[in-house]
Amino acid sequence: MSAPIVAFYFDIRSPYSYLAREEVLTLGEKFAVAVEPLPYALAMEAFGTPESRSPRDMRKLKYIYADVRRSAKDRELIIRSPSKVFDPHLAHAAFLYARRVRRERTLYDRLLPAFWNRAFDIENMDQITALLGDIGANPDGFQDYLGGAANQELGGIANDAESAGVFGVPTFVFQGELFWGADRVEVLKRHLETAGLARADTPGAPIS
Q1: Disulfide engineering: 79 pairs with which of 45, 72, 135, 207, CB 3.0-4.6 Å?
Q2: Please, are residues 164 and 7 in contact by the beta-carbon 8 Å criterion?
Q3: Residues 151-156: contacts with CB within 8 Å, 24+ apart?
Q4: What number does CATH give the domain 5-194?
């Protein structure tokens, strides 16, 4: 019998998705579940452009990045605020393309630290294809994939997310129940424990 799935909806541009990734992707080590990362592009028009943001908007953004940097420091990560609102389509498509040869985690682990250190342009095709080659996901078919199947797959993920009630990232969905935010991973873990899914060798797991 296959393990129950925890769907992990993320946006490459979300610092909170970045903060949650390691803890979520390793859930299978402590619980009898499989984690399925799913790229989901948020509508970021609300953030506007630097010229259109009000003083209140700027205070909020300043706080958000101060907040994520505090959490990142605890995780020994670097998060620098992006220079603009990027289009995630190319990077999300590359993630799904790498998944075809089971290299999506490697792509994720290589791309995210560089992006959040302003060392990777996720809108740059040359950088994306070079990364695919570096991680062993032959990029020769990526252009064709990008113009065809990628749109269908990303659209399907977006539709499923909407049907599940997803409205932000990171969101974790388990058996129809939503857990939103990097700070809800512990709540999700307690939910999995209550469901009897803690592995027997996990501290605190029930002894049968």
Answers
A1: 72
A2: yes
A3: 153/96, 154/39, 154/41, 154/89, 154/92, 154/93, 154/96
A4: 3.40.30.10
